[in-house]
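Title: Comparing notes on inverse folding

I've been comparing how different people in this forum approach sequence design from structure. To keep things fair, I'm posting one structure and asking everyone to reply with a full sequence. Here's the target:
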């Protein structure tokens, strides 16, 4: 290994990472664009929730303005609060505006996840480690083999018992 820091990029995993750095840079640029959109949608999401909460609380305050004094009044207040909040939030969740925004929010979140996975795969390739997909494939095969072995063990056990019973 060289004693010069600039030569570090030409040895081992750093060489592979340097070769893939353009992919990482591209993904980071795309992540920033997706993150801007995601933040816009998440802000709108919480704005809709906050507005609905405030409107529902105002309705509760108008419908039950006095502070409850006994158990019956507290129960009545709870029923009013639950009914109003249930109706207002159901109306919000059923609205087209909320549905469209929430769909875009989830879509951007999935895009961000995809970009992070791509960056992770580039880094794993650079250091010669398997990707998540490759590990998942190995786990699936391992699970399949375990099931097959268990099935064969059961069959073998049955055959042994049949032979034992014949004697």
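Reply #1:
Here's my take.
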């Amino acid at each position: 290994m060289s004693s010069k820091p600039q030569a570090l990029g030409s040895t081992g995993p750093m060489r592979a990472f340097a070769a893939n750095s353009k992919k990482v840079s591209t993904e980071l640029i795309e992540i920033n664009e997706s993150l801007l959109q995601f933040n816009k949608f998440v802000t709108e999401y919480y704005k809709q929730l906050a507005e609905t909460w405030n409107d529902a609380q105002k309705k509760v305050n108008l419908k039950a303005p006095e502070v409850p004094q006994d158990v019956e009044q507290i129960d009545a207040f709870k029923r009013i609060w639950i009914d109003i909040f249930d109706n207002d939030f159901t109306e919000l969740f059923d609205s087209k505006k909320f549905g469209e925004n929430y769909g875009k929010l989830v879509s951007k979140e999935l895009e961000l996840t995809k970009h992070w996975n791509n960056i992770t795969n580039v880094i794993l390739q650079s250091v010669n480690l398997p990707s998540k997909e490759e590990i998942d494939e190995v786990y699936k095969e391992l699970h399949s083999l375990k099931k097959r072995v268990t099935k064969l063990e059961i069959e073998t056990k049955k055959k042994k018992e049949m032979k034992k019973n014949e004697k």
